[in-house]
Amino acid sequence: MDNISSPAKKVMLSGIKPTGDLTLGSYLGAIKNWAERAEQYDCYYFMADLHALTIRNNPADLRRRTLEQLAQYVACGLDPQKNTLFIQSHVPAHAELGWVLNCYTMFGELSRMTQFKDKSAKNADNINGGLFTYPALMAADILLYQPDLVPVGDDQKQHVELTRDVAQRFNNLYGETFKVPEPFSPKVGARIMDLLDPRSKMSKSDEVGNGRVCLMDRPEDIARKFKRAVTDSDGERCVRYDPENKPGVANLMSIYSAVTGESFEEIEREFDGKGYGVFKPAVGEAVIEALRPIREEAEKIMKDKAYLETLCRDGAERASRIAYRTLRKVYKKVGLVAR
Ligand code: TRP
Asked: Mutation test of ligand 1: which of 45, 141, 150 has the most ligand atoms closer than 8 Å to its C-beta?
């Protein structure tokens, strides 16, 4: 152990693909709660740009999104001094360990990944090798940092399970090398749904969606999206929390509650007898005010090229120190000649 004097914090790591714009859903559901995690855990967050290559991207867009995502995390309150924030491709150890772990991950295992099956069904014209071996790279992302916990959504649990299997397999062959991490379901904040389709999650995706509010949206666009949000068709037209029968209203209430801190009962009382014509713009306004400081801060960071560069460099340096310690061990164990 490096740090005998102070009891080490548990290590937590997560990667986020820069393939879409961060949304109100990602903020209220997750990122908002991350700032305080740093007190308890040693946190690593990286922009998974190598993973983004499994689908076709416009190169300029990918570059911009990667930096913008980093800027937005900082703007959301993730302090780069207290968290290790970096771009995956800036730490080549990911690709290097990724290759090694490819050789310890079985074809059969990769074939069973439901995400691979889903994605190859959706991208029938581009079922590339990377899409198939992606979980081995993800295992490398994780195992390099010897984390205790990997907070992931349900869609990624299977990949973390595979990571554990690969880590155990490697440890059994070569002796204790990797910590076997636990998947961890972070306490979700509000589960935010699409404004036009309140039965499905507000997703970060490429298409411009009027049901999706992004962190960088202009206030006028946010206002418009909330005015057009679907409410319900039960004809009751009152603000009441009933997710089963009034999913649209329930979603707007969850959003309002998350940004104002009001409970559902308080919201029902506040809008009693007022109807949706008052309620929807009020939610829009509350969201505009909640997102304004984040957008402004992210824009400021994006304009400050020198700061952005320092941010990237410092994060990558910090990450590399840990990552290469693991990689050197692995290279030695499998029989590669020391460089
Ligand atoms: N596969 C994850 C996703 O699609 C992103 C990711 C890549 C990740 N590497 C990771 C998440 C390591 C957690 C840990 O969302």
From this structure: 141
Q: How far is CA 113 from CA 106, 131, 142, 172, in A?
A: 11, 11, 17, 23
Question: How many angstroms separate the CA atoms of 169 and 172, rounded?
Answer: 5
Q: Does position 48 have pLDDT exceeding 90, yes or no?
A: yes
| Whether 259 contacts 28, CB under 8 Å | yes
- What is the distance of C-alpha 109 from the center of its chain? 24
Active site residue 333: no
pLDDT in tens, 325-336: 999 999 999 999
Q: Which of 111-115, 127-131, 203-207 has the lowest mean pLDDT?
A: 203-207
For the cut 80, the answer to whether the pLDDT of residue 233 exceeds it is no
Q: How far is the CA of 321 from the centre of ligand 1 (A)?
A: 21
pLDDT number for residue 7: 66
Strands (E), 48-174: 84-87, 149-151
Token readout for 221 is 């666009």
Burial zone of 158 (CB within 10 Å; 0-12 exposed, 13-18 middle, 19+ buried): middle
Q: Are strands 10-16 and 41-47 parallel, antiparallel or unpaired?
A: parallel
131 lines ligand 1 (CB under 6 A): no
**Mutational pocket test of ligand 1: of 17, 34, 149, the residue with most ligand atoms within 8 Å of the beta carbon:** 17
Query: Cβ(140) to ligand 1 under 6 A?
Result: no
Catalytic option among 9, 119, 227, 329: 119
Residue 164 neighbours by CB under 8 Å, 6+ apart = 180, 181
